[in-house]
Amino acid sequence: MLIATWNVNSIQARLPLVLEWLDRRRPDVLLLQETKCLPGAFPRAEVEAAGYQVADHGEGRWNGVAVLSQVGLDEVATGLDLAAPDGRVEARYLAADCGPLRIASVYVPNGRELGHPYFTYKLAFLEELRGRVARELAGGRPFILGGDFNIAPKDSDVFDPAAFVGQTHVSPEERAALASVLGAGVVDLAALPGQTPSYTYWDYRQGFFRRGLGMRIDLLLGSPDVVSAVELVEVDRSPRQAARPSDHAPLTARLTLDSRAGA
Does 262 map to a domain? Predict the structure, then answer.
């Protein structure tokens, strides 16, 4: 199986790029974040014509997550709909059964800046995510959680640790919160022995992508029965090189699992 996660920074703006990538790579499941769609506005017909079932959870011009699958899509559930500091309930988590897997797409809040109410919200969201992961694992199916975590797990996951001192994405509080999510029973697949973690995000400004100034903030986390099936985890940089790209690139994991099992 090929599983992928991609923050597309607006599915409407990036639809041709997403459709081309689906046609070229044919992942069994693609998790999307930051779809930025009102409920009912996801381009379902176009994606279904490409051979994928769609489950999406949107709220408007921000946030939004989706699961695209060609191996089945059952038991769809949203969650983690915490109220943000402005009172809005944001669309940031969507899970479904896809073939042999229970799989979820998550878009963790950015946090804005240390000490900001949205930073407190980010930490609360991660605590809720830890509990949700524990409940998903209790279901007994192999589980993958993929998405934009807006956290670089280690200093080696940013181009210059000194440039990020005092900023979000690298703070001890965020990294501890991510470690707590992992402690619920999942593993960072890109950090497994034999894999080579690489950047998944490059700011649009100042030629950051061309200059290699990136961050690893998109992750695929898996339960132990997924970990044992991992062959290769890699970042496909080609969509980031295309015209009008997202500022993120797809992260993929190839697994030695039968996509028909449990379908």
Answer: no
